[in-house]
Design a protein that fits this description.
heterodimer; A: mainly beta; five-stranded antiparallel β-sheet; about 0% helix; B: mainly beta
């Protein structure tokens, strides 16, 4: 079956770095997405990886290892506004997104 | 660019009535639109996928006669919740994908439905 696993909740300190891991099993693979979702709002796109390696975009970076079925989202210089849920989603061979349950990130001062 | 709107943002209705939610892609043509449902503190649950001009494909367990989806144009899809029940209360989110070769989905702001 298809499955996306990510931690339920993480806590980090303002100004620090946090890494949110995601492992995936999909029928075929057409890429891995990360979305940010603040409470009561719709998800917003953060990153898309289809090749192995690290993609850096400002304070956020995303990594993919296709052989390991593994990705992580790295957030640097954490700000209070980064408190949100982070959703990992794998795209299968039918271009359908398989969603993880999300990781709630709590930032403490 | 790539803005998706949803209307209404919040709606309260009585049991037994029907509610229509609109999803519009404002600055691009969306060949495919998706409808999701999200319960508190849970991830997105895909309800159905709709392609312009054809019938929607519903996920297992989603009643197509209860959740009517129409994708009549390349910029508009509607979800109608028929004969609403309190258990239909949820956060409904649509997303749109521009077309072939575009994998990213652009999300609307969501609609909070409360059935009393």
């Amino acid at each position: 079956g298809q499955n996306i696993d990510q931690p339920t909740e993480m806590t980090a300190t303002e100004g620090a770095i946090v890494q949110i891991n995601c492992t995936y099993q999909t029928s075929g693979f057409n890429g891995l997405f990360w979305y940010q979702q603040h409470a009561g709002e719709a998800p917003t796109f953060l990153s898309y990886n289809v090749l192995d390696g690290l993609e850096e975009k400002g304070r956020f970076s995303s990594f993919l290892s296709r052989s390991k079925g593994y990705s992580y989202l790295l957030l640097k210089e954490l700000q209070m506004k980064d408190s949100a849920s982070y959703l990992c989603a794998g795209m299968d061979s039918n271009y359908q997104l398989i969603w993880g349950a999300g990781t709630k990130l709590i930032i403490k001062p | 660019g790539a803005v998706v709107s949803q209307h209404p943002s919040r709606v309260i209705c009585k049991s037994g009535t029907s509610v229509k939610i609109e999803c519009r892609s404002l600055d691009f043509q969306a060949t495919t639109m998706f409808w999701y449902r999200q319960f508190p503190k849970k991830s997105l649950m895909l309800m159905a996928t709709s392609n312009e001009g054809s019938k929607a494909t519903y996920e297992q367990g989603v009643e197509k006669d209860k959740f009517l989806i129409n994708h009549a144009s390349l910029t508009l899809s509607t979800l109608t919740v028929t004969s609403a029940h309190p258990e239909d209360s949820s956060f409904y989110i649509c997303s749109a994908r521009p077309g072939e070769g575009f994998y990213e989905q652009y999300f609307g702001p969501g609609t909070r439905l409360t059935v009393t």
